[in-house]
Prior knowledge:
Blueprint: H1 3-13, H2 45-49, H3 51-57, H4 62-72, H5 79-96, H6 102-140
Helix pairs in contact: 3-4
Amino acid sequence: xxxxxxxxxxxxxxxxxxxxxxxxxxxxxxxxxxxxxxxxxxxxxxxxxxxxxxxxxxxxxxxxxxxxxxxxxxxxxxxxxxxxxxxxxxxxxxxxxxxxxxxxxxxxxxxxxxxxxxxxxxxxxxxxxxxxxxxxxxxxxxxxxx
Length: 146
């Protein structure tokens, strides 16, 4: 069996030490086995919703660039990169960040999805709260007769 096969087998067992001494034969910057890329296809909610933060965790300067462009354009130019990251996020993460195996990869991406949903739900709840407070102030406080 060649080294690539041994590396692939170590991913299946999840034993990080079994492939630690092998050189990176994958051709990917992360050293992850490209054999698993077809298995990882699919939408990535963490990359879509928390795009610039998510990009930073895969060691990409593009996260900073996306943050700056989003802020300068009030988010108008952020939707296209967000959709792209939703579509290609799993592939980008696998290629640019090292994982012990597919299971760890799925756990990390699930955590990003969970925190993205929690973040958006929190912002929505705070927005609803403040809208309700403003509505109450406007409707309950009588206008002054000055």
